[in-house]
């Protein structure tokens, strides 16, 4: 998940600075959720806890108002910031997001790949077995990041396979997996558990503008999840792209950043 802080006046001018983010007038700040990378684990955390973490990061950086963006498992955490810190979060962008586990009227596992469906189901009925399974997967991924990508590829739809076959994307994914798990599996485990229980906030409390993006052929987090989220959020705009899937969100991110920066 990322925080965006607009820098008014930098979107245009006689001497634009190099780089896409500079041209958009964006200061992009990323952080590790507890247990990932160099961040200390916090067992038992829930999705809502991210709002306090982000607020403290913003305080430390001297940021009063900002936008947030989250992809996949980062999406619910971005929505938590929008719901619980409305006086600070100006806009929220969410890509390929999961719905709440108790989503009324949603067939939660319909269209979802077997691996994710098994993990989310196990989190509710046999969390200890899930934890052990994720520990083993994390250790293997830490030693060989491509092993995780190969497992994911086996269940991907064709649009996602096209994306991850790009050598540059594949290299970035390897780096991300290795960095996320360098201190152990706790971040991954706590994320799955947090996403599988009550998130700790109400989507109906989100008042600010929200843009939701999803690939129509996503089978990791089906597009029906984003459509369900949109029905719960009063100021939500939904973009569902035909011919795209979960990893297709990489290509859509620049446009989302531009929209987020528009508030300046």
State which percent range the strand residues make up.
Answer: 5-15%
CATH topology name, in short, is Rossmann fold
Structurally, how many domains make up the residues? 1
First CA to last CA: what distance? Answer: 20 Å
Proportion of residues in helical segments:
40-55%
Radius of gyration (Å): 18 Å
Number of helices: 11
Helix/strand class: alpha/beta
The overall strand count is: 6
Parts with pLDDT < 50 across at least 5 consecutive residues:
6-18
Global outline: globular
The CATH homologous superfamily is called Alpha/Beta hydrolase fold, catalytic domain
Mean pLDDT: 91
Question: How would you portray this structure in words?
Answer:
- This protein has 264 residues and is α/β, with parallel strands linked by helices.
- It has a single domain (2-261), classed as Rossmann fold, CATH 3.40.50.
- 46% of the residues lie in helices and 13% in strands.
- The protein contains 11 helices and 6 strands.
- It has a 6-stranded mixed sheet with strand order 2-1-3-4-5-6, sandwiched between helices.
- Strand 5, helix 10 and strand 6 (236-241) form a beta-alpha-beta unit.
- Helix 4 (114-125) crosses helix 5, helix 5 (127-143) crosses helix 6 (145-153) and helix 5 (127-143) crosses helix 9 (186-195).
- The longest helix is centred in the middle third of the chain and has 17 residues, at 127-143.
- The radius of gyration is 18 Å and the shape is globular.
- The model is unreliable at 6-18 (pLDDT under 50).
- Residues 2-248 form the AB hydrolase-1 domain.
- It holds the Pfam family Abhydrolase_1.
- It comes from Dactylosporangium cerinum.
């Amino acid at each position: 998940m990322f925080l965006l802080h607009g820098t008014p006046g930098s979107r245009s001018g006689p001497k634009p600075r190099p780089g896409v983010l500079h041209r958009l007038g964006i200061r992009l700040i990323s952080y590790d959720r507890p247990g990932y990378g160099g961040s200390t684990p916090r067992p038992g955390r829930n999705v809502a806890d991210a709002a306090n973490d982000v607020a403290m990061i913003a305080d430390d950086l001297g940021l009063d108002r900002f936008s947030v963006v989250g992809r996949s498992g980062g999406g619910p955490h971005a929505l938590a910031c929008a719901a619980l810190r409305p006086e600070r979060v100006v806009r929220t962008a969410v890509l390929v997001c999961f719905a709440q586990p108790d989503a009324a009227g949603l067939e939660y596992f319909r269209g979802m790949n077997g691996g994710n469906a098994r993990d989310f189901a196990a989190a509710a009925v046999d969390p200890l077995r899930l934890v052990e399974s994720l520990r083993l997967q994390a250790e293997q991924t830490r030693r060989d990041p491509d092993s995780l990508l190969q497992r994911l590829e086996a269940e991907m739809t064709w649009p996602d396979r096209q994306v991850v076959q790009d050598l540059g994307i594949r290299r970035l994914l390897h780096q991300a997996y290795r960095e996320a798990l360098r201190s152990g599996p706790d971040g991954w485990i706590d994320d799955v558990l947090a996403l599988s229980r009550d998130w700790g906030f109400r989507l109906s409390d989100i008042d600010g503008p929200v843009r939701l993006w999803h690939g129509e052929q996503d089978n990791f987090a089906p597009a029906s999840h984003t459509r369900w989220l949109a029905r719960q959020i009063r100021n939500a705009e939904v973009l569902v792209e035909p011919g795209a899937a979960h990893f297709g969100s990489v290509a859509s991110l620049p446009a989302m950043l531009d929209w987020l920066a528009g508030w300046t």
